[in-house]
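Fold it.
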Amino acid sequence: MFNVLFSLASDGGSQSPCASPGSSSRDHLLNTVYKQHRLRQRVLEPYRRIKNALKKMQTEYSQSKENNMFARYMRMQSMIHEVTILEKQYWQLLDIPGPGASEPATDYVIRVMEILDDVKSAPQRTGIAGLLSATFNVDKTRDATLFDSIKKMSTAELRKECDRMYLDLYKLIKKYLSLRKIVKNLYSDYRASRFLPMVPRYTLLKAMIKNVLRAPAFAEVCHETTE
């Protein structure tokens, strides 16, 4: 999964975009590291939202084993619904494209940064987008604090931070996309089972939850703390 990530790290620092002649000026590094940290903040929010929802499902599923069949059936419906509602509440998540088959990790992260910058700078509309505009002042304050903290770094520290952040962002985005896929598949399976009788659906709901909890993508993050 991370072959391209490790190949990037082992290719040598001379090929890092943070160390190339056209990209190593302090102003350019400052701007790049700022954008990297801002992207990390934006991806972390929906990542944690999905991760926490799945971990809650894991806990509740274990507890539901003490219930009778009917109570457990109702509880499984509820816990799946709480996860799949994230797919309907699209404004709580981010739509991020996956990497190209041979796309270098750094190029992919840069592409995601550009896409999300374009989305954030687009004119706000009415409805959900209009409601979300209320968070802009908070974002601006947070961004200003972030920029001030980055400005305190030396040029050498900025260059090192830039390289580190490209790798960390690639890992984070890949984990987010893997969890998002789990939610999408669960949402699709859950909707497809809506009109089945209770007994066969009970078995299906159990299978859906087990598939989620046994998924490699969830196993990779289930040990992380709930945030």
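The longest helix spans residues 26-64.
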